Amino acid sequence: MNIVVLAGGVGGAKLCHGIALSSGQEHLSVVVNTADDFELYGLHISPDLDTMMYTLAGIGNPQTGWGIAGDTFNNFDMLERYGVQPWFRIGDRDLATHLLRTQLIAEGMTLSAITQTLAQRLGVKARILPMTDDRVRTVVDTDEGLFAFQDYFVKLKWQPEVRSLIFEGAEEAHPTDAVLRAIEVADTIIIAPSNLYLSIDPILAVPGIKEMLLNAAAPIIAVTPIIAGESVKGPAAKLMRELGVECSAVAVAQHYADLLNGFVLDSRDAALEPRIAAMGIQTLVTDTLMTNLEARARLACEVLDFADRLRPEKLGGCCPDRLLPSS
Amino acid sequence: MNIVVLAGGVGGAKLCHGIALSSGQEHLSVVVNTADDFELYGLHISPDLDTMMYTLAGIGNPQTGWGIAGDTFNNFDMLERYGVQPWFRIGDRDLATHLLRTQLIAEGMTLSAITQTLAQRLGVKARILPMTDDRVRTVVDTDEGLFAFQDYFVKLKWQPEVRSLIFEGAEEAHPTDAVLRAIEVADTIIIAPSNLYLSIDPILAVPGIKEMLLNAAAPIIAVTPIIAGESVKGPAAKLMRELGVECSAVAVAQHYADLLNGFVLDSRDAALEPRIAAMGIQTLVTDTLMTNLEARARLACEVLDFADRLRPEKLGGCCPDRLLPSS
Prior knowledge:
Rossmann fold
């Protein structure tokens, strides 16, 4: 049973953690957005890869969703003492990841190989796959001008009004063989409840990935990041409004429509189900809010069972020791 | 009263701290060895500059002589978790210095300007002057082959037998204007009790510095790093034996003879005094072991008073509120 998840940071990591908790990590491959990567103090930082890695390693900070639980910020405090006003808080342990990655990149190692090495060291059994080893950077076109993603997201706290998104370098980027192969042999493909524009679209913008998904044998299921017209976290809902799109699970399903066999929407949006079904997409209505570890595992289990029902040949659903019966 | 000290790391920093404690930092310029600088995880590390800066800022670690007092090593622990076996322990706060320096170098700032900026931020009033802004690197030629300085010093714990030292890049290096100007206007020049071969010789190897010292109006005084045939710290004595030099204060005075007006040797070596005096060098015999802050200040005071006696025009010695009468 091969499971592939396309994911960004926090929301995607929660669902992947749920899969890990309910079905183990061995059969899980996660294709992760790297268009949020950036450089700080000369260090290569990959926020989504790190969030995924720390979460699957069980050392993620559950309060923030990013960084390492119990990390200290003495390096950060010293930078402040030097008069630097760092807009991006890096913990002392977290910094080790960036230092090593930067060094290994300088030595010519690919981001994929580095990610595999670091994740293995932390005991992660899932395959965490950067969408590409090439440089892709999200540029946000706003009413206040163009901004590099982290400037928009962290420095400006996603306040400027967005007009469009540019995935710089995407057209020339290549998906890695590992990504293409994972999609090819997948039994289930899940689009995580990550930001559709900022986390998933950059993955789909890497030439070859969308084509591979359109030809995939496995059912493709998206989990909504929008509940009752609001984002669970981050600027997804705000972006939908700014881009002139209906801010609802329906628009999310519409956004991915050509790829989807199934769509998971929240119980709070049950009334929207007929509109999604009308697109020819199978639906699962359930509680999608992953407020604790049990909720992560339960949602993952339900999504995997849903996938099993969409597959011509049954593979037996998610979990031998299923936490809850599928709804 | 302008005081210039040529110095390496720990021993030099102690004496400079003594000067700071007894006479203030305002009139102190320290020319610091940078031939020990190296790169780790892509970071530019300047061990002697940092030891001097932390010590003069009052945040140095008095136990180790390097690093920051009370620093944590969570970054280091995480690197170990990643399977890296870091041979150079960098504290979390200390790391901020290397990160900023590396970033500022990448932005085109000189090591001198960076050092001034960082030191000012930490409240250091003395001028800490890298001997050059150019790249000079000590290479140690040993019975086990050639080693970069930090490999010899930290990794191999200075165990291989040294045949000679190479200051790579020194011939093409330029002293900074600040270094030349400091020596020019100095009233007192002190060669710190640093390793003569590894800390002071690289400074003297930068073309122009030795010439400027030979023409200096100020008396030049060296303080011995050798007491009773042993180094206070580090490999100085071992190196003297390996290089076939008598391991004593006499050989230190001999090493610097063409530069010196005065030499400070330890009371334990009082019997050697006539041999140094016979070179035409004035001597001060005193307790040179700086075991605590009071000892640092007392030695500094005595050295500055000694300098005053060597100067044709008296400037009034070291300290209005002198800790001890000069011996």
